[in-house]
Design a protein that fits this description.
5 helices, two-stranded antiparallel ribbon, about 35% helix, homodimer, Dna Ligase, domain 1, 2 domains, flat, 3-stranded mixed β-sheet, about 130 residues, DNA-binding, Arc Repressor Mutant, subunit A, alpha+beta
DNA sequence: TACAATTATAGTAACTATTATCATTATTGA
DNA sequence: TCAATAATGATAATAGTTACTATAATTGTA
């Protein structure tokens, strides 16, 4: 099995992810890290974001409008996606642990986890109307 | 505003969607409807699936493994996505209506709806281990 | 039934997001 | 310092989806 080797690019990607309050896309990360490493490749950004997600050091959030967002906050929590601007935000809501069991009651299979995405209009988009 | 005109291709797509118990992808629909209309275009399938979703006569389900599935059952319900095979199945679980309100408590914005996707291993994939 | 207006289609090209390839560079342990 | 190997940048390739356009189908009206 390949052993992990340090890279400054990966470190920079992870630092940006941890420092950002919103949930950047791969392109957002690329645009930002480029300021520090001007000739970093977009492929490197994708490779490392997926690697961090596999290692459990980042969460991948897939939204229906097609965008994939990344989150450096790794403890499980829920997200909100604005119908107007598409931005993804964190939600303060306790984790519903017992719901996996409830969902498994009438289901032939094993349920291990769940993800929930709330929809509506964010604060900024409310202002603009 | 353009008025909707009947097309047999759209009818066939909708019929297949309503008759299928699983949740086909655009390509699944294409492969099936092609048996009835051998030279239907994949573009026609996409156009009509998106149209049906806009009209509220189908639900679009986006899964993290990248696949987009369609569901002819339009009343709100939850879904399960198998980590092994990627198939999407319906879940028998009452709708959590009060959760939108609970999520809105500490949130600056309006929450209108939510989607929940459960993960685990489906019956068929359990057998194979 | 015929016709005109308009929408939908098939076929294809274009596009976007992401992944694969590969020669070169960086990291690591001895 | 050096050898082994993983990571990178640049680019090509891929997959899924949408856009374009000439032709065909549908619909309302006479």
């Amino acid at each position: 099995m390949a052993t992990l080797k340090y890279s400054r690019q990966r470190e920079s990607i992870q630092e940006f992810l941890n420092a950002s309050c919103d949930h950047p896309t791969a392109d957002d990360v690329y645009m930002n890290v480029r300021q520090q490493y001007p000739n970093i490749s977009l492929g490197t950004v994708y490779r490392n974001l997926n690697l961090l997600a596999e290692l459990g050091e980042a969460i991948k959030i897939t939204t229906p409008n097609g965008g994939v967002h990344f989150d450096g906050r790794t403890e499980p929590h829920y997200h909100f996606c604005c119908n107007e601007c598409g931005n993804v935000l964190d939600l303060e809501l306790e984790q519903l642990n017992c719901i996996n069991e409830a969902a498994g009651k009438n289901f032939d299979g094993v349920i291990e986890s769940h993800e929930m995405l709330f929809y509506g209009t964010c604060k900024d988009c409310l202002k603009q109307n």
